[in-house]
Amino acid sequence: MAEEAKQGPPQFIPKLKGKKVIIRLVSGGQPVTGTIEGYNPYEILLQTAKGKLLVFKHAIATIGQVDEPMKGFTI
Amino acid sequence: MAEEAKQGPPQFIPKLKGKKVIIRLVSGGQPVTGTIEGYNPYEILLQTAKGKLLVFKHAIATIGQVDEPMKGFTI
Amino acid sequence: MAEEAKQGPPQFIPKLKGKKVIIRLVSGGQPVTGTIEGYNPYEILLQTAKGKLLVFKHAIATIGQVDEPMKGFTI
Amino acid sequence: MAEEAKQGPPQFIPKLKGKKVIIRLVSGGQPVTGTIEGYNPYEILLQTAKGKLLVFKHAIATIGQVDEPMKGFTI
Amino acid sequence: MAEEAKQGPPQFIPKLKGKKVIIRLVSGGQPVTGTIEGYNPYEILLQTAKGKLLVFKHAIATIGQVDEPMKGFTI
Amino acid sequence: MAEEAKQGPPQFIPKLKGKKVIIRLVSGGQPVTGTIEGYNPYEILLQTAKGKLLVFKHAIATIGQVDEPMKGFTI
Lengths: 75, 75, 75, 75, 75, 75
Description:
Six copies of one chain form a homohexamer. In chain A, a hairpin with a 3-residue loop joins β2 and β3 (43-48). The longest helix of chain A is centred in the N-terminal third of the chain and has 6 residues, at 2-7. Chain A is mainly β and 75 residues long. In chain A, 8% of the residues lie in helices and 43% in strands. Chains in contact: A-B, A-F, B-C, C-D, D-E, E-F.
């Protein structure tokens, strides 16, 4: 508890670095799949089958894990 | 009243932690259903039937409770 | 006038608390109807016929009053 | 020029207060027509033929004047 | 170089003041064409064939120059 | 490691300056292709086949590299 107070709100995206994810965009259409290589407050860098892709967070609706859907995001 | 003034504006999402919710996205399409496991100022972590799902708040239109629609969000 | 300067810009949503409203979302589709029970800088809590519904302000296009359309929002 | 520097960037919405406008929303669909009765940093209050309507600025694409399209927004 | 550091990031919209532009909106649909008469951090005032039009920046996807597409935005 | 801490979060867009990119917009539709000539916190200036184009970041869903998809965004 004391530790929680110290940590501030949970950060979910850092836990997904290096994981394969499926990203659904607010624009709908085909989701984007790839491995999260990096991130900053505004963007996520994804390694996809077709190369690196910079995804703006403001365009993301949801992120789910591909390989081990039940083990992701432990909090 | 004095207590309200001290508390600042009501916070609704913390009251939904651990509750089963239905989330409609601004992109329309199928709503997302799951249990809220965590949240921070930008994202909500949802446990769905298919695993964990990170939902960006900016992509959410509405959140309703599934199991006890009349009892949720007491303020 | 002096009073206006002191008050800052007009706040419209507080005047709608307890009122029945129709909310149109930026995503289009069916508008949402209910009574505003609470609000904070980011969300509005609505009592609808199907239970409470948390509506994110960023997803709202317009809010109109249902019962007394000509009397609402007096400024 | 010195005056401009002192005034900061031009404010367009205050000049439209009391004017009849046509507002197109980012969601597309039918534009909204009415007279601007008030505004704050986030919302515009419109008197429409069907009553008052609160329009969120984030949902607005464009605002044009209805009655005197060539005379509006003098800067 | 030293000058760049002093200037901060490049500002593109001021260079378009008085130029005829074509603005595509995030909502899709017909682009808007006109001359940029003014701007502030949130809005752009456009002189179109049908009168003045206030365009919210948050609703803009892209701005291109109409008359001299190769000469615009020199940086 | 110490260097990372000093640098703050990774910046991806500066690494794309001068590179040919394909930009998908949140509005869907045809992607925009061009070379990034400049950027600031809100906009990206693109040299396209039809001239310069100012693209608002808030309207961008993803940016990918065109010519050397596997070599872009080294972090």
